[in-house]
Amino acid sequence: MSAIPSRTNRSPLRMNKDVTALIPDFPFHYANYLQSAANRKLPPCQVDPANYGQKVLIVGAGVAGLVAAYEAMRMGLHPVVVEASERIGGRLYSKVQGDPENPGSQVLCELGAMRFPVSGKALFHYFRKVGMTENSADFPNPGTAAAISTVVDYRGEKVYYEVDGNPAFPKPQEYVELEDQFFDDFLENYHFKDLEKAMTEGSIDQQKIKQLWNAIVKPQSGTSGDDVSFYAALLENSGWSKADIDLFGQIGFGTGGWNTDYPNSILELLRVLYTGLDADHQLMFDGSSSLPQRLWSKAPKELGDVMLHWGEDTTVEALSREVFADPFHKEVRHIERQPDGSFRVAITDTRTRKTQQCHFPSVIYTPHVRILDKLRYSGNPQSLPAMNSLLPIDTWEAIMYTHYMQSAKIFAATQRPFWNDPVVGDEQRKMSITLSDRLTRGTYLVDYSASKGDYKGSGIFLSYTWNDDALKFLGDRPAPLPQHVELCTNLLDNIYPGINLNEQYSTVNAFVEHNWEDQPLYLGAFKMNLPGQYEYQRRIFSQFMSGIDTGNPDRFILAGDDVSWTAGWAEGAVTTAINALNKLAVCFGGGSQPANPGPVESWEQLKPVELS
């Protein structure tokens, strides 16, 4: 989901580097941890058998919630998933568009995450487990070979180019130079090559990562990287003029503008670039929400996994429905810690408005943490002290100041992928992946005809926007969708005269619009920290270690991508779910195998540096 554009010439795969997303703040190798457990035919963690069947409430049915629930079930606990909406997936949200009478013409619109970096190996562990990697392809990012062709519409000028395609349309040298200067000059102020090497398989060095990264976060002298915005860092260290920085902000390397990230801490950008999360993305033809859906509905034996305690046909769905016949439309509105360390939880059915008081020995909370902040003030004012006691005041402060980015998409299913029509000689293609400094900003073309699944149609993300650009699509009521489709269509018809987009759209169920800022259960697309917010992130991420050092581990556990150091990527949702799982195991008398220590057992060696 991240707004950071994809690099092209310098992508790890193009440079023959097998980079793994070892987050520099806590460079634990989650994928190795998961694979090592799988090789031993065991769940990643185990609990004391005396605690088999203990219930764990898991709030939220996104990928973090379902990974945590699936693995908790495997190790013998009883996960109970509740979801405030009507669906599985959270911000993995694949919606079917096109004619329902003709399934072959239907296409999936990814309203949330749609491109998945191969360096996110913990996420891909689960993609492989549920069989999704067998039906995937390179994502058509601007400026990549998968895009076939790219058009940059900037300051009234249109530039057309192809990568690994027709040599008559090379990538403009100006874009190539921007990418070279960014990686060879600017990023070397931040030890980019050394840190990337330390995250590359065959030369992974966790202590080197920590040494170099901690010196950026907390230098012995000078300004902490946490105090500097991306824009300020460019001014100070790029050697570019303000005009160069403006150009880079609008078009990047011809792969997307970077200016939506300019206000964010430079640390946010560096984490994504070191880990390769910005490049080498895959499109999942089965739909991103298939991952949590399959973890919800499939038994471990179907996915090649061993399970402890439960019968071999048991699923997360079945265990959840034992407690709530319908676990959807169930909004958690109050959580109160009991004297014995368990929790009384108020769960409201958002359709009937009826509230149940339930009791659970442990709770994993995965929605956006700002939703948790709002919960403190809902209901009876006398309940506020109980909610306050869930977390230390410093952690509540970090949650209150969490900064979310906005994101909006407008999508149209098409009758066919007309942009792939053959061209003759030096003809330009009818339409291309498009970057514009105007209203649409990013226009993406997706073709599912190579899918092995049910959906083989095509479509256009007429507009994919961030922050202020996304807000331009809010507020037009009562019927924004037709108006916004018309605005985008008019602009694109101006860029591509002669295609007449209205004639290309599907005649049935063509259009959908989604703005994460407008969704009551989310409050934005994902978190991006502003300068000065490192300590806030450290407190939230470290919450899963609460009570470990005292021998009284806290059974209320935060997880989700905004708890991670790389919000906006599903990898962060998965890795924080593994943190929560390891904590659960400790809470119930167990932990990781001695030969395969998990994040809890590796904490003292790898924990994030403190600034305060």
TrEMBL record:
Q: Which InterPro entries match?
A: Amino_oxidase, Flavin_monoamine_oxidase
Please provide the record's keywords in A-Z order. Answer: Auxin biosynthesis
Q: What is its EC number?
A: 1.13.12.3
From which domain of life does this come?
Bacteria
Q: What are the recorded GO MF terms, alphabetically?
A: L-amino-acid oxidase activity; tryptophan 2-monooxygenase activity
Pfam families from the UniProt entry = Amino_oxidase (PF01593)
Q: Which residues form a coiled coil?
A: none
Question: Would I find ATP-binding among this entry's keywords?
Answer: no
Q: In which pathway does it act?
A: Plant hormone metabolism; auxin biosynthesis
Q: Give the catalysed reaction(s), semicolon-separated.
A: L-tryptophan + O2 = indole-3-acetamide + CO2 + H2O
Residue ranges occupied by any Amine oxidase domain in the UniProt entry: 63-580
Q: Name one GO biological process term.
A: amino acid catabolic process
Question: Which family does the similarity line name?
Answer: Belongs to the tryptophan 2-monooxygenase family.
| Protein name listed in UniProt | Tryptophan 2-monooxygenase
